[in-house]
Amino acid sequence: MNRVVPVLLSALLLAIAISNPAYAGKYDAQFRQFLNSEIIPAARKAGVSKATLDRELAGLTPDTSLPGLVGPGGKGAPPKVNFQAEFRSPSRYFRDSQFNALVPGGRSLMKKHAATLDRIEARYGVPRRIILAIWARESGYGNAKIPHDALRVLATQAFMGQRAKFFQGELIAALQILQKGDVSRRAMKSSWGGAMGQPQFLPSSYLKYAVDFDGDGKRNIWTSQVDTMASIANYLAKHGWAKGRDWGYEIHLPNTVSCTREGPDNRQKISSFVNEGVKRVSGRPFPDHEINKPGNILLPAGRYGPAFIATENFYVLK
């Protein structure tokens, strides 16, 4: 109990120091030096023009309100709290009400974009329900608030985040995006961790996987539903999604099949599992096109929780 007072006092003193204009000015100067010495030379080598750098970096300051920051250069003790929703509060993130609330919107969008989804499936081989499910969880079909200035977030993380070196590369990728003109700085919004737009792509992923599927000449994952869906499908396809296969099937696992056989290192033909007594919970047989393809046992909650036969597509999603 005696430790509470000094800890609270030190926190208050730190808050006062951070809000002090002189402190902020000193911090901003250090940040500007970082941009000039580290980011600008690397960005120029990556093909970002001086005009782009002058325009986008002018007046840029760090956002010290972001969670999880340490010290300049990524030095300092990392925070003990994981701020991502799925880790901070997994019971809330995965509760049924969260999923159920997203179902009507998904069905509506699936109907609205039926013809477009036909084309996306034909090109990338990813089922529409998978595309819609990822879109739902990443941003609620674009309805989630994504309020941050992506460039400022990335610059701050590159300067004083836990993974400063990683975010330096992402910052340069963001500058490349702005130079290409697919999005304006004003519209380039991200989460506090730098994930952008409706599919929550980091800038490097945007450069590799974002798609202009609506044909307007811009890869717009911020306001274009069509580009968002196609970009998600392209991402999965490029990461090895096996066309025509599902991600997995819920099963009844017989007691005669050991739980030690779980995992991708123990893959075998699904027909072999069937011969050992594995059956689908639905009561339906495994599809003919799947039966002679490999799968593995998946027990996400242990032996007494739900059991699945997972295909390689599960690990693409993972």
Encode the helix/strand succession as letters: HHHHHHHHEHHEHHEEHEEEH
Query: Strand order within the widest sheet?
Result: 4-6-7-3-5
> Number of helical runs?
14
Shape: elongated
What ranges have pLDDT less than 50 throughout 5 or more consecutive residues? 1-23, 81-94
- What is the distance, rounded to the nearest whole angstrom, between the alpha carbons of the first and last residues? 43 Å
Task: Determine the mean pLDDT.
Answer: 88
Helix content: 40-55%
Q: Major sheet, described briefly? A: 5 strands, antiparallel
Subunit organisation of the chains: single chain
Judged by helices, strands and strand pairing, the structural class is alpha+beta
Radius of gyration, taken over Cα atoms and rounded to an integer in Å: 24 Å
Question: If you had to describe this structure to a student in words, what would you say it looks like?
Answer:
- The structure is a single chain.
- The chain is of the alpha+beta class and 318 residues long.
- The protein has a domain at 248-317.
- The protein contains 14 helices and seven strands.
- It has helices at residues 4-19, 21-45, 50-57, 85-88, 90-93, 96-112, 114-124, 128-139, 150-160, 164-180, 203-209, 225-238, 270-275, 312-317; strands at residues 148-149, 189-190, 248-252, 268-269, 279-280, 294-298, 307-310.
- The strands form two sheets. A five-stranded antiparallel β-sheet has the order 4-6-7-3-5.
- Helix 7 runs parallel beside helix 12, helix 10 (164-180) packs across helix 11 and helix 11 (203-209) crosses helix 12.
- It is elongated and about 70 Å long.
